[in-house]
Amino acid sequence: MNYRGIIAIYRFEMARMWRTLGQSIASPVISTCLYFVVFGSALGSRIDKVEGIEYGTFIVPGLVMLTVLTQCISNASFGIYFPKFTGTIYEVLSAPISAFEIVLGYVGAAASKAIIIGSIILATASFFVELKIAHPFYMMAFLVLTTFTFSMFGFLIGIWADGFEKLQIVPLLVITPLTFLGGAFYSIKMLPPFWYKVSLVNPMVYLISGFRWSFYETADVPVGISLIGITLVLTITLSIIYWIFKTGYKLKP
Amino acid sequence: MDTVLSVESVNKIYSGGFQALENINLSINKGEIFALLGPNGAGKTTLIGAICGLVKLTSGKITIDGFDHQRDFRSARSKIGLVPQELTTDAFERVIDTVAFSQGLFGLKKDIEYVDKLLKDFSLFDKRNNKLMTLSGGMKRRVMIAKALAHKPEILFLDEPTAGVDVQLRESMWEQIHCLKERGVTIILTTHYIEEAEKMADRIGIINKGKIVQVDEKKSLIKRLGQKTIQIAYDGSLEGQALQDLQSIPNLKLDGQLINYEYQSTSAVEEVPKLFKVLVDHKIPFSEVESKEKSLQDIFVDLVRE
To answer: Distances in Å between the alpha carbon of B267 and those of A199, B173, B261, B274?
Structure first.
């Protein structure tokens, strides 16, 4: 195992976050504050409690998930796409480092950044609402599983993309809409029966529901199913990454 | 001599069906400078990519210092340093960080003393804290060589190392490459500049349309395939039997007061005395004799044209 190689990639990726501290941390924090101002204070005070929880408090897990998912995908996809774009990927591909170690370096860094930002958002939220976390261990488990899974998904997008526009397509057209419709700002139980059933096809429902359960012990779907769902997505992304490195798809001609 | 790199029956066919490498067999000796010459699209970069793990082989086997480049990829790749043709650097990184990154990537502990030594060797020490985006093209090229040497490889691949580099810097890079050879590093370079290969290489391989067409010691390649010309300036006029005897010599041309005679280096002992015998027998007075050797460039052009 080339531990130093993994650490070199990890540090290189984390260094970019510290170099661009403003856009890495300030922008998600500012946008979260805006959500709290609009949905928490301005509109939230006129909305009934959801599942017995104040609306401003109810949306915290969904907001964290929304930001974390976006961050995972954009960090991991950019992390692998940029060396492909500049050509510096040659060094990683010709080094004595295995595919698994390369993925661990890039995905580990993207997941770490997302976890740091998620924690900062939680800290920011605590200034606006009264937060309680019923199951801190499960909360961290969901956060870590989600960040690794979606960082791997972002890594896949970075390998697949052959232009900067494609890096944005999936987060903008797929992830953000699915997260909004996955119960980030409402409980899907509030929907009419038909749309409730449609929502169950959305994988984000399981992520957000499980994560919210770890805070307030209230869930749209059983927690066990949420865990199975996220493990399934993790397995699928891992299998695709394994196939990519085996065949050299878009990495080695 | 010990073989440090062996390429056996290597073929590469790209997904579109284009065959970039066809049955390549090549052995590189430990400590030599090997120049791989070939026109654009001949397969030089594909061959280097295949050895370094950047290109997937269609078939064949590559062994680096006894290690299979796929099965024992860690041992094999740790022996190799690669400087690609394109100037590919991470614009926002500092010089010192990017060289230290290469050490880590190859599984080594950060050794700043060695990084500093490399930067001094390549006249980059005063730029160690500069971002790569602020460096000139020549400096970036040197940073890439320093990165490739950061893990102390035994074999260094230089893909067109002096492309787009000015004459002064080119000569300084040639010096640095010679220093590396003296330290025992095996160097494989591809180049368009025949002069570069002629000046630096111990052995030369010529690749064309994905096939190796010649591999030999530089001197013996020039001797074996090199053609020589003798130009003799004579006085007076040529007529009668003297003219007939001269015209009967193959590859001899008369041009005013000049006799131009072309012959193969290998047959010089038999051919040249014949010409001088005719001149002496017919008492043709000659005042000047000039001998020219066909350059590596001419040999290369002939081989590629074939």
So the answer is: 88, 38, 13, 12
